[in-house]
Amino acid sequence: MMEHDEADLWFRVIRYRSCLRLGMNRFIKLLIAVGLIGAAGAVGYQPGMKYLAKRNKISWETVKMESGDITRYVESTGTIQPVLSVSIGSFVSGPIVELNVDFNDEVKTGDVLARVDPRLFKANVDRDEATLATREADLERVEAQLQQSLNNYMRGNRLRESNEDFMSDREMDALTFEVKSLQAQRKLAKATILQSKASLETSRANLQYCQVTSPVDGVVINRLINPGQTLAAQFQTPELFVVAPDLREKVHVFASVDEADIGLIQKAKAEGRPVTFSVDAHPDEVFNGEIEQIRVSSVANQNVVTYPVVIAASNAELKLLPGMTASIFFEVDSTEDVQKIPNAALRFIPDDAKLVRKEDQHLIDGSTWKSKPQTDADEDDKLTATEKAAAAKKKNQRHVWMVEGELLKAVEITTGLIDYKFTELAAGELADGAALVVGKKE
Question: What sequence ranges are listed for the domain CusB-like beta-barrel (predicted)?
């Protein structure tokens, strides 16, 4: 019995030692695992922090400075019009019996465009010719009577010279006044002939007016009559056709330019700068022109003052038709081979002062303008012309932003000529290829 208890005790001791040895092994392994994890964490801490910092770092979108040419334009809209529009009407009344032209027909000077019924006017010519013939015959009758009266007067005068008793004073007075009366009738007959000739010329002119002819070479851009239509020209000359001469040689583009830009247009005209424009009918084609006239008659519409500018353009292919709307670009200034800044860089302003180096934070945190005394907007109207000009020049002083390490730095510049994409760098420490910030990368 004693032996059995000792054996059981010994078995328990051996079993306890085994469990203790197994626990120690597991604890050692756990310590080794924790040590390895700690060592791995210690080794990967710095790279991990660098990765997180790099991951959270702001990336800036930039554009580069470049060199090239800059051209400034003034935009406007206008309407295509012929250089001259000749309105052709009718001087006489009557039904249209002949119509020889239609829209878009080309005509020459003297071409008969239409004909008014000439029968009444032909009858008037015949009547006046007959009247003239009557007046001429009457003149011949008066001249014959005058000649007979002169002969009688001369015979009486010779008889009186031979013997005064053959012709009394009364008989001589009768012969004398008969001659004078017939001479007056001859003058009257000649006057009536002149009157008849004038009436005949009027009738012939009216007959000629029955033919409506073109006074110029050109293109018929409008026809306002139809065959059989009756014209009534007694009170107002009816408009029958509108002919545009030289439509293939030249057309005018009438543009309205704002008063703020008219000075630039005057300068461009003096320098002979070109004008380009396009029309919706040919959107893929650019037409060239030149400033022909800047009219001094201003037009005011809702307190906006504009001036008409006339542009001349060739139209050999007749693509430019009267009434078309043109989008016009006046070249007013240009520079060649200058440093130019993308306009997107001028529009960028950082939205957080923490992203900007300390010496430039005043440009965006409000301290620059808040430190200045506030003035009324009306005070701008009290500035002299010289002060306003100086203030306008200061508007060209701007800032652009570049990346410097982790922050942004401002670079002061002075701008010059501006076009749609670029602005001339008039002054400033920027080199070709400099990367300018335009925004954050998403």
Answer: 253-329
